[in-house]
From TrEMBL:
A GO cellular-component term linked to this record: postsynaptic specialization membrane
Organism field: Seriola dumerili (Greater amberjack)
Name of this chain's protein: Cadherin 2, type 1, N-cadherin (neuronal)
InterPro entries associated with the record: Cadherin (IPR039808), Cadherin-like_dom (IPR002126), Cadherin-like_sf (IPR015919), Cadherin_CS (IPR020894), Cadherin_pro_dom (IPR014868), Cadherin_Y-type_LIR (IPR000233), Catenin-bd_sf (IPR027397)
Task performed by this protein: Cadherins are calcium-dependent cell adhesion proteins.
MF-aspect GO terms: beta-catenin binding; cadherin binding; calcium ion binding
Length: 917
């Protein structure tokens, strides 16, 4: 029987009860008190012969009046179970073909008051073999038969009007939801429920539904017959896509007027177990330390199911299907079937034996029911992590090595260990320590990070003559301590035997360096000292020979056999090779071993000073004015010797030449300084050599006459030399001064030549500007004069200005039209006369004459201005060109000479010289 029908029967029962209650209401009470419990004590439901596992068979309705939460149970039945919302489902596949009926007792218990209610449901196979026929429900020994559940627009209770009459008022009770299983395979459209109004008895009504799934996306899933109110579903539903639909039913008359308030219809899609569990990962990776105790957490695996998690369809259970390897037992791990937590259940995890385990995990829905639940699997890899549970152990008890004496940073022996822990981890890395046999710390054992070997190394030189072998005791342990609970029976130790090899060592001078004191001036062949070396090789009979390596002044020699050192030159403390009275010589001692060895030693000679150097005047050169004020110069002495073989000094002027004492005087200031003065008032400029005799204070005093170079010069008021000699004294020679003067003179000459060239170039440029362009030369071009021009306005020019001034009459002189830069023509000015051209036809000579006149004219414009040459002057044999002005009242002009200028001017002669015609 369809669960929706059960719900509709419940609604009908409530409706009948409400109708009965309306007749028993008084004017003061609107409804009967609520009776908590099942709607019916017994049900009879038609069902199919074959029921699938997990199929929803029917719903039970419990009347709740606001009490505590109710828990449903089906008693001892192993075929059915009931969900929290009263849906009864099968636990396995059932067949009712043989027995044709079955009974299910459903209990409801209040969790607070512990009150229990029950109802019996009789399942019987429909005669047609399916549950699509009529549904029978026994109500108080009465049977109600109907094919499709009916939803009536609800009514409220009866109320009393003011006039004492009764009136029915609409109810507001909530319609229970309609449950539709997903993935239905029935014929579509499939009827769900019928919507009707009790007002359809008097008039024709039309029904409709609105909401998502009807007239809103996704549209067309639910349809309703507008006449009968039959609500149907058009295709299978998918709860994982949409779990419920909220529709509104409407009833209107043929005019579209609403006759009933809309009622809300909730359609729940009942879940079916149509989705397998899915693990979140195909392979899960975890780890656990080796030696972990049972109950240690390892990891969590997770699977999800798209089915309803509130039903058995989505309730998952986990279990371990297999473990590989099965060592040391086949059940090293267990899993919490609800949470997926994996924990250890057995001891004996040892990384050195098993590095990782692979588990196959299964997740099953239907609360893990192996018969009806859907399953899926995933792989879990559990890596066993390392802890320091294995100490390092030496591969042998004794190691051997050898090393030559005097060697350092040399590997003597490689110490090897074994460690079962994971390589290149702190639990595997080994630290070596010498615990005996090396009191002076001559050996060290660093660890090779790649091989974990101990490298026994010499860090301090060892001497074969002192110790020929070492016996070392070495201990090995890890960088980190052993794990808890691991106890060592003994510490891992080993013995290292090191043999020292003898080598030929170099002879050693003692002491080195060797210092001696002696006076300078020792003659060649003097014996100074004996400098010998000892051979450390006491067990070898070897001969030592000596030689000189470094003697910068070449003063000494050494006997190759006995090491005696003697001089071969005079020792001089004032030599540049002597620094701070010390002179160093290096010698070498070599043995005759195989191979030979040699060593060096240094002899430091501290030379004592003797008075072997005479003093000299200092400074050797001085300056003095011709008339010095004060008339004195201070001088001192320079002596390479040391005190007391140097100062104080005695100064004295030499007796010769005779003018020295006549011109100069020398007075002692103290033991270091003397003062030189002029005896005369002035001395001519020049350079004077003044001999000064100086005597030191040595035990055997030494005297010396040195010359003081005195430069006498003219001085300014500050006392500074100003003559050429001072420049020379400053380091600038006469040749350099002459060269500088010659360069200055050459530079001035070049500047003068450049200025003259610029003036000449400017004159040539001005002359070129006055020349007629070759293209416009009237002698080389034929000009066309048969055009009259633009009109009478061309006659406004005064051509009389082209006439010669001396040929014009006074009344013919007038200003006319001129340029602004043109010289005004006033007869009272005196212009320079310009010579006449040698020939009237030579225009070039004429222009050159005009250029010369302009250059000599003080009133001409500047040389870079445009010059005017329209003034011909009085020297022209051609006369004035003013006669070209035909309107002039002046006398006739003679133009015959134009014929002499060539064929180009012959036309002008014909025009102006041809008389009246």
């Amino acid at each position: 029987m369809h669960p929706l029908w059960i719900w509709m029967l419940m609604a009908a029962l409530q409706f009948i009860q409400s109708e009965e209650a309306e007749h028993s209401l008084s004017s003061k009470q609107g409804a009967l008190p609520c009776m908590r419990g099942f709607a019916q004590d017994e049900y009879i439901i038609d069902t199919d012969q074959e029921l699938a596992k997990g199929q929803a068979v029917f719903n039970v309705s419990f009347m709740d009046c606001g009490g505590g939460k109710v828990w449903f149970n089906v008693g001892e039945s192993s075929d059915f179970r009931v969900s929290e919302d009263g849906v009864v489902l099968t636990l396995r596949r059932l067949s009712l073909a043989a027995q044709k009926k079955a009974m299910v007792v459903v209990y409801a218990q209040d969790l607070q008051s512990k009150q229990v209610w029950k109802t019996r449901v009789h399942l019987q196979v429909h005669p047609d073999g399916n549950s699509t026929g009529p549904e029978q429900v026994k109500l108080d020994d009465a049977t109600l038969t109907q094919r499709v559940p009916v939803i009536l627009f609800p009514w409220r209770s009866v109320v009393v009007r003011g006039d004492g009459t009764l009136r029915r008022v609409k109810r507001d009770w909530v319609i229970p939801p309609i449950n539709v299983p997903e993935n239905s395979r029935g014929q579509f459209p499939e009827d769900l429920v019928r919507i009707r109004s009790d007002r359809d008895k008097n008039r024709m009504l039309r029904y409709s539904v609105t909401g998502p799934g009807a007239d809103q996306p996704p549209t067309g899933i639910f349809i309703i017959n507008p006449i009968s109110g039959q609500l149907s579903v058009t295709k299978p539903l998918d709860r994982e896509h949409i779990s419920n639909f909220h529709l509104r039913a409407h009833a209107v008359d043929l005019n579209g007027n609403q006759v009933e308030n809309p009622i809300d219809i909730v359609i729940n899609v009942i879940d079916q177990n149509d989705n397998r569990p899915e693990f979140t990962h195909t392979t899960f990776n975890g780890s656990v330390p080796e030696g972990s105790k049972p109950g240690s957490f390892v990891m969590t695996v997770t699977a999800v199911d798209k089915d309803d998690p509130k039903t058995a369809n989505g309730m998952l259970r986990y279990k371990i299907l297999s473990q590989n390897p099965q060592s040391p037992s086949s059940n090293m791990f267990t899993i919490n079937n609800k949470t997926g937590d994996i924990i250890t259940v057995a001891a004996g995890l040892d990384r050195e034996k098993v590095t990782q385990y692979t588990l196959i995990i299964q997740a099953t829905d239907m609360e893990g029911n192996p018969t009806y639940g859907l399953s899926n699997t995933a792989t879990t890899v559990i890596r066993i992590t390392d802890v320091n549970d294995n100490p390092p152990e030496f591969t042998t008890d004794t190691f051997f090595g050898e090393v030559h004496e005097n060697r350092v940073n040399v590997i003597v022996a490689n110490l090897t260990v074994t460690d079962k822990d994971q390589p290149h981890t702190p639990a595997w890395s080994t630290v070596y320590r010498i615990i005996a046999g090396d009191p002076t710390g001559r050996f060290s054992i660093p660890t090779d990070p790649t091989t974990n070997e101990g490298l026994l190394t010499v860090v301090k030189p060892v001497d074969f003559e002192l110790t020929r072998s070492f016996m070392l005791t070495v201990e090995a342990e890890n960088e980190v301590p052993l794990a808890r609970g691991i106890h060592l029976l003994r510490q891992s130790t080993a013995t290292v035997s090191v043999r020292i090899l003898d080598i030929n060592e170099s002879p050693e001078f003692s002491p080195n360096p060797k210092s001696i004191k002696l006076e300078e001036g020792l003659p060649a062949g003097s014996l100074l000292t004996t400098f010998t070396a000892q051979d450390p090789d006491r067990f070898m009979r070897q001969t030592v020979r000596y030689s000189k390596m470094y003697d910068p002044a070449n003063w000494l020699e050494i006997d190759p056999v006995n090491g005696r050192i003697s001089t071969i030159a005079i020792l001089d403390r004032e030599s540049p090779y002597v620094k701070n009275n010390l002179y160093n010589v290096t010698f070498m001692a070599s043995d005759n071993g195989i191979p030979p060895a040699s060593g060096t030693g240094t002899l430091q000679m501290y030379l004592l000073d003797i008075n072997d150097n005479a003093p000299h005047v200092f400074p050797p050169e001085v300056e003095m004015c011709e008339r010095p004020d004060p008339n004195a110069i201070n001088i001192t002495a320079s002596d390479p010797d040391l005190n007391p073989n140097a100062g104080p000094f005695a100064f004295e002027l030499a007796n010769r030449p005779s003018d020295i004492r006549r011109n100069w005087t020398l007075s002692r200031i103290n033991g270091e300084y003397a003062q030189l003065r002029l005896r005369i008032s002035s001395l001519a400029s020049g350079i004077y050599e003044v001999p000064v005799m100086i005597t030191d204070s040595g035990n055997l005093p030494m005297s010396n006459t040195s010359y003081l170079r005195v430069k006498v010069c003219q001085c300014d008021h500050h006392g500074d030399c100003v003559d050429m000699e001072r420049i020379i004294a400053a380091g600038l020679g006469t040749g350099a001064i002459i060269a500088i003067l010659i360069c200055i003179i050459i530079l001035l000459v070049l500047v003068l030549l450049f200025v003259m060239w610029m003036k000449r170039r400017d004159k040539e440029r001005q002359a070129k500007q006055l020349l007629i362009d070759p293209e416009d030369d009237v002698r080389d071009n034929i000009l066309k004069y048969d055009e009259e021009g633009g009109g009478e306005e061309d006659q406004d020019y005064d051509l009389s200005q082209l006439q010669q001034p001396d040929a014009l009459e006074p009344e013919c002189v007038k200003v006319g039209i001129r340029r602004l830069d043109e010289r005004p023509l006033h007869y009272d000015h005196q212009y320079p006369l310009r010579s006449a051209a040698p020939h009237p036809g030579d225009i070039g000579d004429f222009i050159h004459e005009g250029l010369k006149a302009a250059d000599n004219d003080p009133t001409a414009p500047p040389y870079d201005s445009l010059l005017v040459f329209d003034y011909e002057g009085s020297g022209s044999t051609a006369g004035s060109l003013s006669s070209l002005h035909s309107s002039s009242s002046c006398g006739d002009q003679d133009y015959d000479y134009l014929g002499d200028w060539g064929p180009r001017f012959r036309k002008l002669a014909d025009l102006y010289g041809g008389g009246d015609d």
